[in-house]
Amino acid sequence: MQRAVRIRGTFAHTPRLGDLEILYDYLLVTDSSGVVTHFQAAQTLESQTVLQKLSECVTLPTGTLIVPNFVDAHLHAAQFLYQGNGLDLPLMEWLNKYAFKAEERLDGDPTLARRVYTRLARRLIHNGTGTVLLFGTIKEETNLILAEVMQAAGLRAFVGKLSMDISSRPSYKESSAQSSLQAAHSFVEKCRGLTANLPSHERLVEPVLTPRFVPTCSDELLAGLGKMSATENLKIQSHLAETLDQVEYVRKERGAEDMDVFDRSGLLTPRTIQAHCTFLDVPSFKHIHSRETAIAHCPLSNSYFSAEPFRLREALDEGVKVGLGTDIAGGYSLDLMNSMRHAVSVSRMRQGSKQMKADSDDGKSLAIDWKESLYLATKGGATALGLATGAFGVGLSFDAQEIRLYDPQTGMGVGALDFFDLEVSDVSGDAETVTVEMVEKWWGLGDARNRAGMWVQGAKLDISPL
């Protein structure tokens, strides 16, 4: 697969929280493994020298820019089966009625599983997501299908076979902690084996240890997974302090906070991504930061299931690594652009509530802005997963999407975007006619109609209609 990229045009990224850079008339070149080897203004002497040596180079039209792919840091692949349905119950009841049933169904029907996962991969690409952290199911075969499908689609995917030796659904659990640990080890080996014969830059799929959450995992299982992660250098994903009923359940059954249960099991590590964390306070964030553990913020599903909004600003202020997740199907939208928008909305409501309390105004806002949310959806998620992506620069993998804002000939906006002044102006020769306000409009109103291309590790993906 061709991974050598040569593009000249406008690039936009958020290399730091809240810092949007729009880079006009830049030249980006990658090597044959999809890693950026040159990224400078096209008019520099070095860029001109590079251009003279290139046999071909794509020049983007005015009104088009390259931005990083989105990183979905929390998604339940099997629950894509019923995306958009079943959001009427508290979490622990919802799991029994919808989630476990759907996951068990796919475990019993590999043909259906492959069909669901193939459609999921296409939808992710359609929505600009190039990297995804996936919860799977219990059965090894089903998770290997998931890994195969993601690799074939060209997506960067972290696939987790669920580890569960406790369940409120008797038919959906593993028989013991030891059998669960053996199954996790077997999946890791086979998942790694799927790409073992490929060059390192083409190995897009990795296994992830996935204790579902404390209520479905015994102390023995959690401790065993902690040792396996350390020994095999494996990433870990789970759910932490998500909802009131879940938090109270753990306190009653374990006599501890679930953060402490994970910690004593060796599962809060620099390789760990914990979803939700809505019931964590500032001292807890300090502890999470000390462990270098990352958090996947899923604002839409939190609105349905959690009695508390995630304290996003406080987590960021404490230096916690945070990315965004869709949490399909606890969240109904697979489009991470909606997660960005909901993250801003929830944070602004938190700030509004704070302002209503006269004694709580310390001058520090709890709100985030759209630029910060774009960071969380790109560089923030990549950092949470330990990836050299999410922004543009020499040495980084080229994971990107081409976004069309307007037609340079007519000034007409693409999709839902309107730029009325451009419709009566000649913009065809102005390379800098992409403003911060235009990017913001795309953030607020843009959709798949604006997406003209996708790359993962330098390889161009098929974005044709489903």
UniProtKB/TrEMBL annotation:
Q: Which GO terms describe its biological process?
A: guanine metabolic process
Entry GO CC: cytosol
* Keyword vocabulary terms for this entry: Hydrolase, Metal-binding, Zinc
- Name the Pfam families on file: Amidohydro_1 (PF01979)
All copies of the Amidohydrolase-related domain together span: 66-435
Q: Which InterPro entries match?
A: Amidohydro-rel, Metal-dep_hydrolase_composite, Metal_Hydrolase, Metallo-dep_hydrolases
Cofactor(s) this protein cannot do without: Zn(2+)
One of the entry's Gene Ontology molecular-function terms is: guanine deaminase activity
Task: Output this protein's name.
Answer: Amidohydrolase-related domain-containing protein
Q: What is the native source organism of this protein?
A: Mycena albidolilacea
